Amino acid sequence: MASTIPDPLPGPQGAQAALQDTDRPGRIEAHGIDHIPESERHGHPRELFSVWAAANVNYLSLVIGGALVLMGLNLWQAVAVTVVGNLFWLLPGLLATSGPAAGAPSEVITRAVYGVLGNRVNNAVGGWLVSVCYFALNLAAAATAAFALVEKAGITADTPVKVAVIVVIAALTLIISVYGHGLIIRLYLPITLVLAGAFTVVAFAVLRHADFSYAPAEQPGGVELWALLLAGTTMIASGPLSYTTSADFSRYLPRTASKKAIIGWNALGAFLPSVVVCSLGAFAATAVDMTDPQTALQELLPGWFVPVFLLALVLGTISINALTAYSAGLALQAVGLRVRRSVSVLFDGAVAVALTLYGLLVSNFLDTVSNALQVITVLIGPLMAVYATDVLLRRCRYDGLALSDETPGSPFWYTAGVNPAGALALVVGVTAAALCVNTLYTGPIAAALGGVDLSLPVGMVVAAALYALLMRKDRTLLAARAEA
C-alpha cells in the first residue's frame, strides 16, 4: 500500500518531524507494507530484546514445558529439549536483519523468494492463516485465565461474562496492534519487567516443590526415547519457526544497524524467557498434575499471589497476540487487500475473536485448530529455511524500493509473477516433511523408523538445499552479491 505521508523536510528537523508523524507511540502508525525511507529510521537493536521477551513470557510456554514431562521424559531430558528447541530463535534473529536492509516487513521481502504473485499465496497461507489460528489459540488461553480471575472476584463466569471477557482482552490486544510499532517498542520494556517480576515469584514457588531427581516410573529407551526427544524438540521449535515475520519489528532500524546486534538481541530476547518459562512448566510437572496447568500451579503459589499470576498470564498473552495481530494485518495487505494497516488488523482481530468464541462456547473448534497447527509444522519449517537461506545467499542485501514494485516489470516478477526456485523448494520441502511426520497421521518414513518424526530437520534441510541449488544463477541474487 502506498504511503500517504508527505515527503519529509530536508535535514535533521525534517527527519525528526517525519519520525513524529509516522512512528510515535501515541499515534496510529501510518506505514503498512510500504517502504520506510532512511530519513524515518531510528532506534537501536537492543530495543528488540524487550519486544521478544514480553511476547515469550506466556501461558502456552508453561503448558508446553509441563507437556514434555507428561510425554514421558525425565526432568533433565525435558530441560535439554527446551534449550535445544529454543535455539531455533536464532533463525528469526537472522530474518530480522532483512528488515533494516530493505526498510520493509517480511511480508514484502519474501517477494524476492516467491515472486510478486507467488508471495501473495505465501502470505495468505503461511502468514495470515497461521497467524489468525495462533491468535485464536492464545486468546483462548488468556480467556481461560481471565475466567478464573473473574470467578475469584465473586462473579459467575456465565456465557455473557465470558463473551465480555474475550472481547475486552481482544480489544486491549488490538489497541496495541493498531497503534503499531512505536507503541510496541515503548510499551514492551515495562511489560517485560512486570512479567519478569511475576514469574520470579512463580519460579521460587515452583522450585521449592520440584523433584529435581524426577523420572517416570517406566523410562523410555532406544527408538521410543529418540521419538519422544524429537517430538518434544519439534513442539518447542514450532514457536520460533512460526515467526517468519521478525523483520516486521526491525524494519525501522537504520540500514547501518549492526546485523550481529540485531540477531543477538532478537534471539536472546526470545530464548531466555522461553527457556525459563518452559523449564518452570517442566519443574512444576514433577510436583503437580500439569494436565490442568492453571489449576495445578495455583496449588504451589501463595494464595495472595494467585490473582497476580492470572493477570500475568493474561498480560503475557496480550503481548504475544499483539505481535501476531500486527503481522497478520501486514500479511493481509501483502495478499493484495488495499486497506490501511489499522483496518486489516481490526479485521484479523474480529476473525480471531469469532473463532475463539465459537471454539470456547459452541464446539471443540479450537482443538481442531490446534491439530491443524500440528500439521502446519511441516509447512513453517521449510518456510523458515527458504527465507533464511535467501538472506544468507544475498548477504542480506535487499532493494526495498524494487521489492515494493508489483508490476510485471519488477525485478522480482520472475516468471509470470512466481519465482520457480522458491515455489519448488517450498513444495518439495513440505512434501519431504510430510513423509516423515508423526502427529495426527504417520508418514511412511516415520512408520519405517518406528514412529521417529524427522519432519522438522528433513523438511528444512531439503527446502534450504534445493533453494540454494536453484538460485545459484539467479540475476537478482547475483546482483545483490555484487554490491559493494
TrEMBL record:
PANTHER family reported for this sequence: PURINE-CYTOSINE PERMEASE FCY2-RELATED
Chain segments annotated as transmembrane: 48-69, 128-149, 161-180, 187-205, 225-243, 263-284, 304-324, 345-366, 372-393, 413-441, 447-470
Membrane topology of the entry: Multi-pass membrane protein
Keyword check for Membrane: yes
Span list, region Disordered: 1-20
Protein name, entry field: Purine-cytosine permease family protein
UniProt record similarity statement: Belongs to the purine-cytosine permease (2.A.39) family.
Keyword annotations from UniProtKB, A to Z: Membrane, Transmembrane, Transmembrane helix, Transport
Keyword Lyase: no
